[in-house]
Design brief:
Radius of gyration of chain A: 23 Å
Number of helices of chain B: 9
Radius of gyration of chain B: 24 Å
Structural class of chain A: mainly alpha
CATH superfamily of chain A: MetI-like
Largest sheet of chain A: 2 strands, antiparallel
Order of helices and strands of chain B: EEEHEEEHHHEHEHEEHHEHEEEEEEE
CATH architecture of chain A: Orthogonal Bundle
Number of domains of chain A: 1
Oligomer: heterodimer
Strand content of chain B: 25-35%
Number of strands of chain B: 18
CATH topology of chain A: MetI-like fold
Strand order of the largest sheet of chain A: 1-2
Helix content of chain B: 25-40%
CATH architecture of the largest domain in chain B: 3-Layer(aba) Sandwich
Largest sheet of chain B: 6 strands, mixed
CATH class of chain A: Mainly Alpha
Strand order of the largest sheet of chain B: 6-7-8-3-9-10
Chain lengths: 268, 347
C-alpha cells in the first residue's frame, strides 16, 4: 500500500483558510438568524427563535417551499428522462456528434437570464403556445438552464465507466441493447447521475432571475418569497436562508445515501 | 472441405484510411491463430468486425458454414476478451460469469453450477464474491476469460488481453490461456503486438501490416523464414541487408532479390585469430570490430561492424565471451545458406 504524503503546516493552513472562506458567511448568517440583538459585539448579545417562529407560522413560506420543490423536481426529472437516453445514445453510438452537442449545451451560459426571460415571455405570451406566467414556461426554462449540468455529469459518468465497452461486452454475452443499458451501464453511472441531479436541483432551487421574471408572484418560489420578505428584517431573511440551506443539505444527504445503497460494492 | 472460420475479402475504411484491405483468413476447429502486427495495422479492427462491433465495407465472415456478416453481436456465438477486460463493476466475479447465462434464460442453479466450474477452470474459486476492483489485473483477466467462455462460444476472440499486465504475470497467463484453449478445443483468434507471445502461444501466426496479412504460417516458419523486409524487421533483431551489403559479406549472390535477412544467432562469433569453419567449406570468415554489447538475460547481443556493415550477433550467455567489449577485433563465421532472400514489400 502506498503511504500518504505527510501534510505540512502550509497544506493545513490552506485547508483551514478554504474552510473559513466557505463557512464564515454561512456561520454569520446562522448566528444572525438566531440573534435578537447584534450590533457592536463580536457575538450576539441575546438569542431568539423569534425569526424562525415568524417564518414557520407563515403559510406563504410552506407554499413557496412546496412550489420550489415541485417545480425543481419536475424540471430535473424531465431533464433526466430526456437527457439520460440522449447522452447514452450519443456517447455509445454517435461519439462524432459530441462536439456539436457540447456547443448546444453551453448555450444557456451564453444567454443572460434577463434576456432569456424577456425572449421567452415575448414568444409564449401569444400564439399557439400561450403559457407565459404559468408553471409550464418555468419548467421549460428550468429544463434548459440545467442542460449543461445534466449533460456533463451524465457524459462524464458514461466515459468514466467506459460505457461503450461495457455495452459491447454485454451485447456479446447475449444482452439486447436496452437490457445491457439497464443491467450494466445504468447501475454503474448511477452515482454520477445522482450528483448531476442534485447539482441541477440545487441550482434551480436557488434560481431567482428567471423565476421572478417568468412567473413572479403568480407562483412564489422560496427565492421569490425570500426577496419579498428581505425588506422586513435581515434576521428573518437569514432564518429563511438557513432553513433553505438545511433543506438542501438534508435532501442531498438522503439522495446520496440512497445512491450509495443502490450501488453498494462497486467502488472501493 | 470448408474452414471452421472463413474470412473472405474483408475490407474496412475509417475516414478515408483503408484499415483492412482485402483480408482473407481461414482457421480450423480448435486452432489458435494469432494476429500479430504493429499498432494501427488493423488487427484489433479485424477482431471487432468478426465480433460484429464494427461494420464491414466488404467481404464475408463465415463461422461453421453460418454467414455472420450481417448478424448483431449477440447472435454470432462469439466470445471476446477485451484489452481492458470490460468486467461489469457492479457485479461480483460470479455474477459477471453468470451474466451471459442469465441473458439466455438459464436457471439460477444451472448458472451457479457453470460459474463454479469456470471459476475452478481459471483457478479463482475463492474470488466468486469479489468485485472487479477487489481483484488484481491478472485475476480480472482470468474472470473476463471465464465470462466469455460461460456462454460456450463457437469462436473466442482475445484482443491483447495480456498487454496491461506485468512481465511475469503475462508469461504465466499465456501458458494458462493456451492450456485452457487446448483443453476446451476452442477455436481462438488472438491479437497481440508481442512477437514472443505470438510465437509461444500459437498454432499459426498471421503477420499484419497496413491492413493486410503479409505472411502466415506456423511459429517456426514465421521466425526462420521471413518473406519480406517488414516481417524480418518486425520478428526481432534480424539483420536486414541490402544486396550491396550482402555482397560485401558473402561475395557473389545469385537471384534478383534486393534485400536479404540473416538471423543474428546464425552468425558465429570467434576470437580474432580463430578461422574455424566447423567442417563447412562454404562458410565465410570475415573480420570485424565490436561496436556495442548488450546482455539480454540468456542472450548476449553484439553489434559488430564488418567493412562498413553493422551486424547483430546473438550468443548464448554461457560466460565464454567475457571480455569481448566494444572496440575489440573479432572474427565472424557466416554460412551463406542462412542468408534469406526477401520479397519487395507489397510484391
Amino acid at each position: 500500500m502506498t503511504e500518504k504524503p505527510r501534510a505540512g503546516w502550509g497544506h493545513v493552513s490552506l485547508q483551514v483558510l478554504l474552510l473559513v472562506y466557505l463557512l464564515l458567511p454561512l456561520a454569520a448568517t446562522g448566528l444572525y438568524a438566531f440573534a435578537k440583538n447584534w450590533q457592536n459585539t463580536v457575538l450576539p448579545k441575546q438569542w431568539t427563535l423569534e425569526w424562525f417562529n415568524a417564518m414557520f407560522t407563515d403559510m406563504r413560506f410552506f407554499t413557496a417551499l412546496w412550489n420550489s420543490f415541485y417545480l425543481c423536481a419536475i424540471s430535473v426529472a424531465l431533464s433526466l428522462v430526456v437527457m439520460l437516453p440522449a447522452v447514452f445514445v450519443l456517447t455509445v453510438y454517435f461519439p462524432k456528434w459530441e462536439s456539436f452537442m457540447k456547443g448546444i449545451v453551453v448555450l444557456p451560459y451564453a444567454v443572460p437570464g434577463v434576456v432569456a426571460a424577456v425572449g421567452l415571455i415575448r414568444t409564449y405570451s401569444s400564439g399557439p403556445i400561450e403559457i407565459a406566467g404559468t408553471a409550464y414556461i418555468l419548467i421549460g426554462a428550468y429544463f434548459v438552464a440545467v442542460l449543461p449540468y445534466m449533460y456533463q455529469g451524465i457524459r462524464n459518468s458514461m466515459l468514466t465507466v467506459s460505457a461503450p465497452e461495457l455495452m459491447q461486452a454485454a451485447e456479446l454475452l447475449g444482452a439486447k441493447p436496452i437490457k445491457a443499458f439497464l443491467t450494466v451501464v445504468f447501475p454503474n453511472i448511477l452515482p454520477g447521475v445522482m450528483i448531476s441531479t442534485l447539482l441541477s436541483f440545487s441550482v434551480l432551487f436557488g434560481e431567482f432571475v428567471l423565476t421572478n421574471m417568468l412567473v413572479g408572484a403568480h407562483i412564489p418560489t422560496i427565492q421569490v418569497y425570500l426577496y419579498q420578505r428581505s425588506g422586513e428584517s435581515g434576521h428573518l431573511s437569514s432564518a429563511i436562508g438557513i432553513t433553505y440551506f438545511v433543506f438542501i443539505l438534508l435532501l442531498s444527504m438522503v439522495l446520496l445515501k440512497l445512491g450509495r445503497r443502490l450501488n453498494r460494492g462497486t467502488r472501493p | 472441405m470448408s474452414a471452421y472460420l472463413d474470412l473472405r475479402h474483408i475490407s474496412k475504411t475509417y475516414a478515408q484510411t483503408r484499415v483492412l484491405d482485402d483480408v482473407n483468413l481461414q482457421a480450423a476447429e480448435g486452432e489458435l491463430v494469432t494476429l500479430l502486427g504493429p499498432s494501427g495495422c488493423g488487427k484489433s479492427t479485424l477482431l471487432r468486425c468478426i465480433a460484429g462491433l464494427a461494420d464491414l465495407d466488404g467481404g464475408t465472415i463465415t463461422l461453421r458454414q453460418k454467414d455472420l456478416t450481417k448478424l448483431p453481436p449477440r447472435a454470432r456465438e462469439v466470445g471476446m476478451v477485451f484489452q481492458s477486460y470490460a468486467l461489469f463493476p457492479n457485479m461480483t466475479a460470479g455474477e459477471n460469469i453468470e451474466y451471459g447465462l442469465r441473458m439466455s434464460g438459464r436457471s439460477k442453479g444451472e448458472r451457479a453450477k457453470r460459474a463454479e466450474a469456470l471459476l475452478a477452470l481459471v483457478d479463482l474459486e475463492a474470488k466468486r464474491d469479489a468485485y472487479p476492483h477487489q481483484l488484481s489485473g491478472g485475476q480480472q483477466q482470468r474472470i473476463a476469460l471465464a465470462r466469455s467462455l460461460a456462454v460456450e462460444p463457437k469462436l473466442l476472440l482475445l484482443d491483447e488481453p495480456l498487454s496491461a499486465l506485468d512481465a511475469q504475470i503475462r508469461k504465466n497467463l499465456r501458458t494458462e490461456i493456451r492450456d485452457i484453449q487446448k483443453r476446451l478445443n476452442m477455436t481462438t483468434l488472438f491479437v497481440t503486438h508481442d512477437q514472443e507471445e505470438a510465437l509461444t502461444m500459437s498454432d499459426r501466426v498471421c503477420i499484419m501490416n497496413r491492413g493486410k496479412i503479409v505472411q502466415q504460417g506456423d511459429p517456426e516458419t514465421i521466425y526462420t523464414r521471413p518473406e519480406t523486409e517488414f516481417v524480418a524487421r518486425f520478428m526481432g533483431s534480424y539483420n536486414v541487408l541490402s544486396r550491396r551489403d550482402a555482397q560485401q559479406l558473402f561475395g557473389r549472390i545469385d537471384g534478383s532479390a534486393d534485400s536479404f535477412a540473416l538471423r543474428p544467432e546464425s552468425v558465429k562469433l570467434l576470437e580474432a585469430d580463430d578461422d574455424r569453419i566447423d567442417g563447412n567449406p562454404e562458410r565465410k570468415v570475415v573480420d570485424g570490430t565490436v561496436h556495442a554489447v548488450s546482455i539480454l538475460g540468456t542472450i548476449v547481443r553484439y553489434a559488430i561492424d564488418v567493412s562498413g556493415v553493422r551486424l547483430t550477433v546473438d550468443r548464448l550467455n554461457d560466460g565464454k565471451f567475457i571480455g569481448m567489449n566494444a572496440g575489440r577485433s573479432v572474427r565472424l563465421s557466416v554460412d551463406p545458406a542462412q542468408l534469406l532472400s526477401l520479397e519487395r514489400e507489397g510484391a
